[in-house]
Please model this.
Amino acid sequence: MGMVSDILDTLRSRGLLRGGWFIVGRLRHRTLHSAWLALDLCRAFWRGFRYLRESRRSGRRLVCITLIEHMGDIVACEPVARQVRGEEQDALIVWCAKSDYVQIIALFPEIDGFIPVRCLTSWIALRRWARFDRIVDLHINGRTCLTCRIPLRKHEGDLRISLENYYHHGSLLASFSLSAGLPALVAGPVLRIPDEVAQRVNRFGLPDRTVVIHCCSNESCRDWEASHWRQLIDALHGRYGVTIVEIGARSTLERPDSTKYRNLCGKCSILESAELIKRALLFVGVDSGPAHLANAVATFGVILLGDYLSFRHYTPYSGAYADGSGAVLLRAHGEASFIQAAEVIDAVAGRLAPILGQEKTSNDFWRTTLRNTLRTNI
Model:
């Protein structure tokens, strides 16, 4: 009756013709999605069966770690692979994630294989019916598949952790670990970029002295003002002659490539982005996946943080980015866009001057130069 009622309401509100086309489109979308989901489940169960057969033949326990997305979350949880391998030294350990992130998981030496899925619903079905000896589910209980609108219901781990309070339990790594029934892990992530990735990055022909920036997260409330980024680019190049390289899915800076700026948004894979960050003198960015990459490749970062949802003064990172030895976390009272350009200038100046052999006493001159540049661009 609910479906019939929805159809009638749609026809009343949109009219017979428009409402009819709308309903046909929705039914077509659902049919296509159901077909894709069925194919995805078949692929996931087949891959799971192959790992099960391999584990039984070798007499090894089959352990599945899962966190299907996003890039930053998976990178942040790399220490989980080390933790589980320490607990299950002889086990066959696999990771279930979206196909886009398999390239990251392939760099975790403790992981023996992976199971790709299209959405959380596929994992919900897999964890219910597949025969794993142990599941380490890093998803927070109650998380809903954004495609199918089906919630995940867990029975293990700390079920008090929810989407409303997970940052109250520490970093992403700590809260996700607790949610999976592990201790609250604090180690920093580690990624070792393969040589072939470094060779691919050479095609961009970048100079030796670069600063990598990432300006746009997948949620606008975490972003900094585009005008501030443009001012910072001009100031950095004007004082130190460094080239600023922007990475990410898209750019909002609307500026052409030049000796001072290269836009590589949408042109790099995840691992190529990690290699670019690894080569850089410094990483400057908002709270998003590339910041976790910077933490994992040990490049010093200046990270812009503001309030996120109901969380105030939260720290998503572990390791050197959490204890201050590998990053400066600039915090806003409100959204990250409230951070003043001068704060970022000071943080960048304090890091770049000693790296490039500048005397500390030149910091005042450096900051004055940058502020003058900012005023002329306002």
